[in-house]
Specification:
This protein has 13 helices and 13 strands. The chain is of the alpha/beta class and 390 residues long. It has a seven-stranded mixed beta sheet, with helices on both faces. α4 crosses α9. The longest helix has 24 residues. The protein is globular, with a radius of gyration of 21 Å.
Length: 390
């Protein structure tokens, strides 16, 4: 009998991979499922971006292997983005690396810096991939709790009480997923100081900074951050390019070179046309974000109405692509709560527990749902004759 690698004993299949199979099964049975679980933008990219990728496929060498480091124009686009929006100066030749989505970067960074037995500080609640990748490379997750009472920011006194001697890397994500906490430059300063003190590589995962957020920030704005910090970014949420798989990592050249050693052994470069589309997206002005956020703001207002119908509470000042809602007092299980809604009302909402134990008692709504669908979901909870069959 051929056995799988021991590392697979440490991880489970990604929650959405398994749960969405169940959702698709219900749909195949004719159930009118409204999916509010996944943050996959449903809106189209800008026509300028579509035109760019369409034109690119006819260019010479468009279908050959591409550079592991991406086109120089793409890296310049990333550098200009950071200069324009964050006032951060980066060398496009040495301080950034295109990725096939920032999720790929989580694996590449972990493989580049972690040895078996190293420890990794991971937010709870937080993106589940931080933990699963840590386990896959043989390192050990050390979870640090985030709480609503402290705006979902780390407790630095609690962190200092930990034995940090084996900690090599720390994941943070502001704006925070799943809670929508915005973070601040003051928080980033504390994080950079903490990382420098303990010689920890700090990685800020920053894909949501332009969604319903009037003050986008980067951890690289902090003086000296490059000495200890990397930042992941992505075009998925900003430009409705999730399926294109375009992200990048920024930081000092020594860190980027280490990540490139891993990446160059795992793929053969990003498709030329996708790079050209990304270059076009990065040239869009701020009116793109303003128009996109008008749509998300109207959807969020409707999600607030739906959450209120469910007697949940939420922070109206949160940012990003989701609404993080606290369940009513007396509800013991977020997974049971969302399953009852899925089976009885045919609406899929994400339980907070998939993001860690601190997510118990919360649920997460995605804004990647058309307003008409959100209104339909609201109607399913209103006691009318038309809805009795639901």
């Amino acid at each position: 009998m051929i056995k799988t690698a021991n590392r697979l004993n440490q991880v489970e299949e990604y929650y959405f991979s398994t749960k969405l199979r169940e959702v698709r099964q219900l749909q195949s049975e004719g159930k009118p499922i409204i999916n509010m679980g996944v943050g996959s933008p449903d809106l189209a990219p800008h026509p300028f971006v579509i035109s760019a990728i369409q034109a690119s496929v006819l260019e010479e060498n468009a279908h050959q292997y591409q550079s592991y480091q991406g086109l120089p124009e793409l890296r310049k686009g990333f550098a200009n983005f950071y200069a324009k929006h964050f006032g951060v100066s980066l060398d496009f030749n040495s301080e950034m690396l295109p990725l096939m989505g920032s999720k790929e970067g989580i694996m590449h960074i972990s493989m580049a810096f972690l040895n078996e037995g190293d420890q990794v500080l991971i937010p709870n609640p937080g993106y589940p991939t931080y933990s699963s990748v840590t386990k896959l490379v043989g390192a050990e997750p050390v979870f640090y709790e985030l709480k609503e009472a402290t705006d979902w920011e780390p407790d630095f006194e609690a962190l200092e009480r930990l034995d940090l001697s084996k900690v090599k890397l720390m994941w943070v994500s502001y704006p925070h997923m799943p809670t929508g906490a915005s973070g601040s430059l003051a928080l980033f300063k504390k994080l950079v100081d903490f990382a420098r003190k303990h010689q920890i590589l700090l990685v800020n995962d920053n894909p949501y900074s332009f969604v319903l957020n009037e003050h986008p920030i980067s951890i690289l704005q902090i003086d000296g951050a490059k000495d200890v910090a990397l930042e992941l970014n992505s075009l998925s949420k900003k430009y409705n390019l999730a399926g294109w798989r375009i992200g990048w990592v920024s930081g000092k050249s020594e860190f980027i070179d280490a990540i490139l050693k891993v990446k160059s052994n795992m793929d053969s470069g990003m498709f030329y046309g996708i790079q050209k589309g990304a270059i076009a997206a990065l040239q869009l002005d701020n009116s793109w974000f303003a128009d996109l956020n008008k749509v998300y703001a109207s959807r969020r207002a409707l999600i607030f109405d739906l959450a209120s119908l469910l007697q949940c509470t939420f922070d109206k000042d949160s940012v990003g692509l989701f609404v993080w809602a606290k369940l009513p007092d007396g509800v013991e299980s977020s997974e049971q709560f969302i399953d009852e809604i899925l089976y009885n009302k045919h609406i899929f909402i994400t339980p907070g527990t998939i993001f860690g134990s601190q997510g118990e008692g919360y649920i997460r709504f995605s804004l990647c749902v058309a307003a008409e669908k959100i209104k339909e979901a609201i109607a399913r909870f209103q006691p009318t004759t038309d809805n009795k069959q639901l």
